[in-house]
Protein: WxL domain-containing protein
Organism: Candidatus Enterococcus palustris
Amino acid sequence: MKKTILATATLGTLLLAIIMQGNIANATTTKGDIHFLEGDGSDSNGIEVSDPGKGGQHEGDGSIIKPPAGGSSTTGALRFNYIPSIRFGQNRLSTKTQDFYALFDEIEIGGKKEERPTFYEIVDLRGGTKGWTVNLKNDRVFRSADGKQFKATLAFKDMTVQSNSSISNEKQFPTVPKAMEETAIGTDAGSSVKITEAKNVESQGYGSWSVRVGDLDKKIPVKGDSGIQKNAEADETKTTRNAAVKLTIPGGQIIDTSKDYSTDLVWELVSAP
């Protein structure tokens, strides 16, 4: 044991002697620098939409998807990568005020088709946290091609936010209405309603964000009272729909089943002042 310790000590002395012989003659410092441009989607990747997940606690894994048909997008460093058309499909008429529910969206991921709740995706790559809001405008009127119309109110609830940019600090997440708080969209005058906000003073909004409306675990049940008669067999045109996207049609209106009706949803993405 003593020989081993002595040998180690001797080797350490030799190494120290060698190091001391290599004195630094001169030293100086240079810089490494990098500059950035706004990410306006004009690079080779273009506009890519991320999987928003199934809603609630079920988030996407960052995979790029083919978004649902009928949606739209905008351009620029602050943009909508995807905004949805909301489909209510076929529904049975009623003489009374009735609630109707949106179909879940269909995406394509990894060559397979899957359901997702209604969602939209915002990207802010202007640099820093400048803040923005999403407003949705609607005049609460559905119209046919020949001018027939009826009044109806669209409402959202159960909205959740997902970061597609690996941001984990929830204080930096944009805000949406409380989960069970129902937000009526638009007004009779056609004005807009704020549905998402990123505050620059809170360092919110930088990167890519998916906002989901609804949850695949909360489909309209086969029995229940989510706009359906309590304890009765549900209208089959309502079951398995998205309970978080509701259209209320007041009674006393004449609706023609031979016509298709639609309304304009105007999505606004506004930079904070």
